User: Fold this.
Amino acid sequence: MARRPLPRILSKDSAQIARTQIARSRELARTAADSATDVLHPLITVTRGMRRLASAGRRRWADTPKDKRGPLLFLVASVVLVVALMPYGPLLAVITVMATAAWHGRDRAEPVPEGPDESQIARLQSLYEALVPYFSSPEDPAPLYAHGGEWEKAFTATGFDDDGRVAHLAIRYPAYFPDGEPEARARIEQLLTAKAGRGREYHFAWDEEGNRLTVTVLAPLPTDIAAQHFVTAPGETVLGFTDPSEVQRTLPLAYGEEQIDVPPVVWRTGMRSTEPHLLALGQPGSGTSTLLRSLALQALRYGDVLIVDGGGTGEYTCLTGRDGVLAVECALPGALASLEWATQETERRLIAINVSRQAGDPPPADSRRPLWILLDRPSVFAHLAASEGRQDPQTLLQVPLRHGRAANVTVVVAEQFDGAESLCEAVRQHTRARVVLGTAAPRQVEAVLGAPPHTTPLSHVPPGRGYARLGSGPVHRLQVPRTPDPYDDATSDADRAAVLDLLPPRTTAVEARPTDLTKPAVTAEAVGAETS
Assistant:
């Protein structure tokens, strides 16, 4: 007896075809339903009107007193009899009832008002009058802006939020306005921020060719995204999250019990990076330590981390003894020894990579493994070193900063604004990736990032909120993922569990790889002797 062949498992192409057919069937069914609705719309309207007329009749009968229901029935019967005896009476009655039902069954949705209302018009007129001194000139024969003029000619598009405040505005301005001067732009942006409503962030898009200014109110960035494993390739690090219109990439993230796609600010490090080192500045409590913890947790997935904490507040205690964490130094002698070892390690890697390339071999595995040097508040160590007559630890960063990209060494420096002047020239010169966190004036942001932001900074921002710029790229709004110290009593249970789940296991004394930070670097002669 012949066996019945087993059904074959659908291949990828057949499954794709099946999904396409299902989607096409759904689209045809939806189109047929819409067409049927359009054809049967008069019947639906009449049926709805008959139902409303019947409901009105029942309510009228229930409201009629019992002693008057008899005369009412007699009156209705008389009308029906007269209509039935009239020529064409029944036909006229049916037409009348159908017309009445169609009238009562029509859609009674209130029409959406076109254009702004009176209060919104008053806001627009106020904005227009405020812009007159900046966008007008006595020599203009036909001024676009004039006191008592029409705002409709200057504002080509308007939008308002639920509170009646301006949410979107497209402004025309005369060609003689110096829109290429930052000072002139700053005056207009400051004026619009004050008149359109404080406490919000505005994005200003200047079209110098078309003499157009588009003002858009930005939605707040999410502040409750916890630390987690990000879907990134080796060499990619997520600094935080930004606006969807600023980047062309999204990351799938766990947001509570849901999965959402959030646009990230991705920083690429390694040999092919153009911005191999980063500098973060901010006010106390702005989230610079949170940023360093987030970077450390991501770096430990593929490399080793050396942490030097100048604040001495124990922000990185949770990383002590973890697999991949070479050291967490909080004292000046340990910081000097660690950074001296980092300098020697950078030189050793350069020599090993050079020797392997000359021999036509791939670089050694220990030279390809990324090494991250995280330095928090070096100004504290600079002050202690000056008082004790020792070397400033920042001077030991010159070799990792200058040659770190070729040796797979990444340096991240975090400092507060009040200690920014103590940063050495090597840190200022070689940290092309910049982050500013916390409340900062526009001039401070421009001085650190090298370009002004296209949004208005707020006077009060949550921790981890700021701006980021990678090299000569655009300035992005930034919100650092929530990565608090899990050993802090103020940390919630959910955040503590999220950070602890990302920490590598602790390395025991037997399993630990001994890292002697005081061991001298491998010289070129030694490497040559080993290779020979």
